[in-house]
Amino acid sequence: MRPIAVASAALLALAACGQGEEKGRKQSAQEVAKEMAALKMEPGQWQVTNEILSATAPGLPEAAVKQMVGQKTTVSNCVTPEQAAKPSANFLAAQKNSNCSYRNFSMEDGRMTGTMTCSGGQVPGEMEMKMAGEYSARSYDMNTDMDAKGMPGGMTMTIKARTSGRKVGECRPGEAAK
Hints:
Elements: H1 2-11, E1 26-27, H2 29-36, E2 44-56, H3 62-68, E3 72-79, H4 81-85, H5 90-93, E4 98-108, E5 111-120, E6 126-135, E7 139-149, E8 157-169
């Protein structure tokens, strides 16, 4: 079912959102990348799990919304030493060809918070995401709220999710992050 695929792709944004226009300090991708340097993540094989905790989508059949809730997606990626040393702001977007802007992004004392708004990439329309979570060099855990608007048929969607990642070992020889 296409709306489920859209929601799953949106969830890969590893972030969260709120409703309405939020005022706050706007940041460039370079400023966010500088904040991301605080992550000090270890290179190697990482496993990331996304779980949809709740979802609403007016106009989408209730059965389709219920089917999304509880979905877990786990992916594994190789993070090279170069990527670990300098994670980009797009690390959060987890998708290519997305146009993201950032507000109030902060990483300090093992806590990460911020708002990211993206358009383009794998999901049509615009997503505003707010994230709050904890991180260390070997793991992270984030609660996310996401609002998507401008989707096909004028549909809107709100998703609450949890994303956790952890280093599970070393990369296989010749493997590069995707």
